[in-house]
Design brief:
single chain, DNA polymerase, domain 1, hpI Integrase, Chain A, 3-stranded antiparallel β-sheet, Tyrosine-type recombinase/integrase, DNA recombination
C-alpha cells in the first residue's frame, strides 16, 4: 500500500482501509514518520495485527502487551508485571512466536528463576506471571498446547506470621504522641483492616449506629491513588467495630467536623482530611514504636487474638474477609491446637 508525505511538515504518514473485528469498513491513519520506510513498516505491522492479531504465531511480547491492555489490572499490578517482564522474561521469550515456545525452554526458565531469585515466593510470582500470558494465549489466541503443563510448579513458602499480644499493643501504642496515628493503628489492630483500606476510608463509610465500617475501596500506598474497589472481591464487606473503637471514631468524627470548615462525609478522609495521609509518614511513625514489626502485623494480631480466644475458624474467615477457608486455615490453623485437644478429650469421658 502507498504511503504519503505531508508537504507542510515534511513527515510521512500512511492511510489504509481495513475491516474491524465486526466486519465494518474502517480507515486507519498514522502520521509523524521521519522516513518513508518507517511509515511502510508501521502500516505493514498494523495490517498484520488486523489480519493475524489473534493468532498463536504472534510473539510472546505481542501477547504480553495485549494481555496488559485488555485485562482489568490495577496500575500497581501492571507496573509490577512490566518490571518483572523486562527484567526476567523479555530477553528470553519476547521475540519467540508463542506456538514455538518449547517445554525445554520453559524448564530452563524455571531453573533460572530458582537459581537467581533469592526469594522462592518472588520466583513463584514471576513464574505465575509467565504462565498467565501462556494461558491468555490459549484462551484468546488459539494456542493449542501449553509448554508449561508438565513442569512442576514453584512451591509457595508461607512464613509463619508474626503477631503481638493485645497487652503489648495497648501498652506501646501510647508511646505515639500524635493522636491521628495512634487512632489509625488502634483501628487497624481491632478490626484487622489492611493499611490501604484504612487510609482510603472517608466518613461516609462509617456508621456509628450500626457500629460498623464499609470496606469498598483501597489506596495504593506508593502514590496515594484511591481505587473504587477493595483489594479482592471478598475484601469488599462490612467490618464490625468493638464498642470502644466505635466511641473512638465517633469522638474523632465530632472533632473533625467542628475543626474543618469544608468537612464533607463523602470526601473527607477519616485519616487525613481533604487528602489521605502519606504512607511514608505512617510507616515512619509505626516503625519508631514497633521497630521489630511491619505494619501488616496488626492484621495478623487481630486474627491471632480472636483465634486464641475461641472464635470459630469459619467466623474468623468472614472477619478476615478471606475468599477461601483454606487461606484462613493455612495462616492461622496452628493457633487452634488447644481446640484439637478439647475435641479429642471426649474419649477420656
Amino acid at each position: 500500500m502507498p504511503v504519503y508525505k505531508d508537504d507542510n511538515t515534511g513527515k510521512w504518514y500512511f492511510s489504509t482501509r481495513y475491516k474491524d473485528v465486526y466486519g465494518n469498513n474502517k480507515r486507519k491513519m498514522k502520521r509523524g514518520f521521519t522516513t518513508k520506510r518507517e511509515a511502510k513498516s508501521s502500516e505493514a505491522s498494523f495490517l498484520n495485527d488486523v489480519n493475524e492479531g489473534f493468532s498463536d504465531s504472534n510473539t510472546y511480547d505481542y501477547i504480553f502487551n495485549h494481555y496488559l491492555e485488555h485485562t482489568d489490572l490495577r496500575p500497581k499490578t501492571k507496573r509490577r508485571k512490566q518490571n518483572e517482564y523486562k527484567k526476567h522474561i523479555q530477553d528470553k521469550f519476547g521475540h519467540i512466536n508463542m506456538n514455538k515456545i518449547t517445554q525445554n525452554q520453559c524448564q530452563e526458565f524455571r531453573k533460572y528463576l530458582m537459581n537467581n531469585i533469592k526469594s522462592t515466593n518472588s520466583a513463584r510470582t514471576i513464574w505465575s506471571g509467565f504462565k498467565v500470558v501462556i494461558n491468555y494465549a490459549n484462551k484468546y489466541f488459539g494456542l493449542r498446547s501449553d509448554p508449561t503443563i508438565s513442569i512442576k510448579p514453584i512451591p509457595r513458602v508461607k512464613p509463619k506470621p508474626k503477631y503481638m499480644l493485645r497487652e503489648e499493643f495497648d501498652d506501646r501504642i501510647n508511646e505515639i504522641e500524635e493522636q491521628d496515628y495512634r487512632e489509625l493503628f488502634t483501628l487497624m489492630f481491632y478490626t484487622g483492616m489492611r493499611i490501604g483500606e484504612a487510609m482510603a476510608l472517608v466518613w461516609e463509610d462509617y456508621n456509628k449506629y450500626k457500629k460498623e465500617i464499609s470496606i469498598n475501596k483501597t489506596m495504593d500506598i506508593t502514590n496515594r491513588t484511591i481505587y473504587p474497589r477493595a483489594k479482592t472481591e471478598s475484601s469488599e464487606d462490612i467490618v464490625p467495630l468493638p464498642k470502644f473503637i466505635n466511641n473512638m471514631l465517633d469522638e474523632r468524627y465530632q472533632r473533625e467536623k467542628q475543626a474543618n470548615k469544608y468537612f464533607n462525609e463523602k470526601s473527607f478522609f477519616v485519616f487525613g482530611g481533604l487528602a489521605p495521609k502519606h504512607y511514608s509518614h505512617v510507616h515512619k511513625k509505626f516503625q519508631k514504636v514497633f521497630p521489630e514489626y511491619n505494619i501488616h502485623v496488626l492484621r495478623h494480631s487481630y486474627a491471632s487474638y480472636l483465634a486464641n480466644n475461641g472464635v470459630d475458624i469459619f467466623v474468623l474467615q468472614s472477619l478476615m474477609r478471606h475468599s477461601q477457608i483454606t487461606e484462613t486455615m493455612g495462616t492461622y490453623s496452628h493457633l487452634y491446637t488447644e481446640k484439637k485437644h478439647d475435641a479429642i478429650s471426649i474419649f477420656d469421658k
